[in-house]
Amino acid sequence: MEFLRPISSSLRAIEIEAAEKIESALQYADDVQQHFLELCRKDFATAQFQEINRTLAFARRLKSNDPNHPSMRAYFSHPVRVATLALRLMNHSSLETVVMCLTHNVFEVSGLQEQDLLNEGVSKRVADGVRFLTIDRAHQYDPEYLRVFYGNIEAFGSDLVLVKCVDRLDNLLGLQVIERSEALAKYLDLSEQFVVPLAAGLSAEFGAYLGEVIDYARATGCDRELSARYQTFLARSEGAAA
């Protein structure tokens, strides 16, 4: 059985997905997670649903020590969206995959270690997966480093590949609020070089969709009005977190 549902029935036109992503990025996670929990309630048994709620509560109470994400309250809509995308795409919903989505960036953002996740009752496999997903920012544009980084994710399993791909998809869909730069151009090129093939390994249709999202990001550029709204939201969030 296919790991993913048909992309045509899981993801909408890129313009629609991008508009929804940007609108959700201008909201706190409180306003974003309702749809996610509705999907979980439909897809999971009561005990599994409770585990997802425990993971949400754990991740949301963490403090950020990442200058790129000073407000955890503002940032946390991202992992919720990543988990929602994974649920929309998976043929069979997986609790472990959802937990990996919700915690995929906690080491980088909060400074936690694997043992901290294990102490919270997270499985060893999930903690290992989060470690493989944690990139060394000093080498984030180094193709040789990235070849090993993405190779480890691919070797880990299809579920971790999906987490990485939907994480990147969510980021790519929101690039209209980001000023164009040489670093962003590299990010798009490296996404095309490394992440699109990972997605294509799950399904050719998914790889093609991700490639089209990259083309869309290049073509649309930065929307200055949306970017100003986003920066205002981040500043307000950072002030509330202080």
What does this structure look like?
By secondary structure, the protein is mostly helical. It has a single domain, classed as Hypothetical protein af1432 (Orthogonal Bundle). The chain contains 15 helices and no strands. Helix 6 crosses helix 12, helix 11 packs across helix 12 and helix 13 runs antiparallel to helix 14. The longest helix is centred in the last third of the chain and has 21 residues. It is globular, with a radius of gyration of 17 Å. The model has no long low-confidence stretch (mean pLDDT 94).
Helix segment tally: 15
Task: Write down the CATH class.
Answer: Mainly Alpha
Strand percentage: under 5%
CATH homologous superfamily (4th level) name: Hypothetical protein af1432
| Mean pLDDT across every amino acid position | 94
Largest sheet: none
User: What are the segments in which pLDDT stays under 50 over at least 5 consecutive residues?
Assistant: none
* Number of separate strands: 0
Number of domains: 1
